[in-house]
Amino acid sequence: MSSIFYDHLLEFDKLEKYVKKHVKTEEERVEIYHLIDEIVHHRIIGCILDRLPREHHEEFLHKFGEKPHDNELLSFLLSKIGHDVEAFIREEVYTLGSELLELIRPKIKKTS
Amino acid sequence: MYGNDIAETIRQKFKVKSLEAQKKLSTLHPHAVAFLKEKGVPVSQLRNHSTKLLGAGIAGGVLLLSPSIDHTITSVDYAKRLTTNLNQTATNLPARGYERTYMEKLNEVLPQEVRALNREEEKRLEQLFYEAYGVKARGTLEGEHLNTTYGRIGAEQHLRRYPGDTMATHDAVAEKDEGMAPGLGAWGYFAPSKEKLTPELVETEKWYAVVQTLYLPDWNTRTRFLRDWYKHRKVLIVNTDNGKAVVAGIADSGPAAWTGKHFGGSPEVMNHLGGARYKKGPVVLFFVDDPNNKVPLGPVTMQQTQLPDVSLKAL
After folding, report:
1. In this structure, is residue A82 part of a structural domain?
2. Cα–Cα distance for residue pair B216/B223, rounded to 1 Å
3. CB neighbours of B313 closer than 8 A, spacing ≥ 6?
């Protein structure tokens, strides 16, 4: 379900594949899924607030707390920030996905 | 302690990363963290909070959507969707008049964007599916409801049916088979040994579905009951791009919300819904009301019976 208004912008397929490959039990997977979810929310809320002028923070947070799933939040942000909100969220998602994968994938040592 | 070192390392690294992300947000935007906390919505509990709100909305028959994205279909939306369907590839294009009419009716009910359906929309689809496929499917069954019944399905791998099961003894789809999942499904093996694997369980693994039980708002308080209730529960999955449908049994929990997907399907399920290259797409997923276990798993075909009027004016 799109329970958060930016869910449709999240695509961590490679990360999911990696976690499923290495984390074999359901309980462990669920705990890791929740941890990733926490990281995602903190990062995306942070990147939105970084761009949203300070005087609109409270209004956004109020609307967000009331209806976190509401797609109208994107229109609200667009009207206050003035440029493509979905684009910078996607960018943050891409960066975060790379960071998380880099964090857990074994480092390949260069031989030469 | 986790079952293996890699899993434990992943958990620890993500735990640290999560704390770092929390600290950064608290440092840069302390007012925001304090505001949400005061409203009873800590950032780490956002999904849980939203799921509860949506669950209450669905149970009350009203989805908490803003009026501007209300599901009511305008003629422009409808024409746009119909054109989209007609422009799809030949394999997705409904070839005959009946299927075309069915797709039109399906599109009359579905919102333009994938989202949780409200009770009224689900009722209309239940009626449509019953007439089209002859399957009694329900958005809510015995009081249970998924967080969403309209979402994106993603391709899953085969599941191990018993200890020692391999692809060598497993059916595979002809092309682009994803192979065997390294871990077990949420309900473990289907049978304790190869000898105890019944033909029914073989079918269940072959036609299995994945749903997000992990995000159910009452999963943590009714775990035991819900685990039993969802285990191998039959669901009707309808590809809303082409009308192809399959009855599957729930055999795993997921996918994670941050994948952009809401359901999963076995290689056979995905192959039937959209062909060998079909990896992700929008579907409706309803429980099958089958108390006497009469509905077989696998593809369902259209009945060619008269389709009901599911438009808003008919209600």
Report:
1. yes
2. 10
3. none
- Asked whether residue A51 is assigned to any structural domain, the reply reads yes
Cβ distance B41 to A65 less than 8 Å, yes or no, reads yes
The residue among B8, B14, B49, B215 with the most chain A CBs within 10 A of its CB, best to mutate, is B14
Q: Which two tokens stand for residue B198?
A: 């019944």
Instruction: Report cis status (omega within 30 of 0) of the bond before B296.
Output: no
Which range of B88-97, B162-171, B247-256, B303-312 scores highest in mean pLDDT? It is B247-256
Tell me which chain B residues have a C-beta less than 8 angstroms from the C-beta of A26.
183-186, 253
Q: pTM of the entire structure?
A: 0.84
pLDDT digits (tens, 9 = 90+) for B11-53: 999 999 999 999 999 999 999 999 999 988 888 888 888 887 8
Task: Give a yes or no: residue A50 inside a domain.
Answer: yes
Q: Does B38 touch chain A (CB under 8 A)?
A: no
What is the predicted ipTM?
A: 0.92
Is B27 in contact with A42 (CB distance < 8 Å)? no
B64 vs A89, more confident: A89
Q: CA end-to-end span of chain A, whole Å? A: 48
With H, G, I as helix, E, B as strand and everything else as coil, classify residue B297.
coil
Test B44 with A67 for CB contact under 8 angstroms: no
| Residue B246 host element (H or E) | strand B245-253
Among all chains, which residue has been given the structure tokens 């308080």?
B221
Q: What is the identity of the amino acid at A75?
A: S
Kindly report, residue by residue over B64-84, the tens digit of the pLDDT: 444 333 333 333 443 444 444
- Rounded Cα distance between B176 and B45, Å, is 38
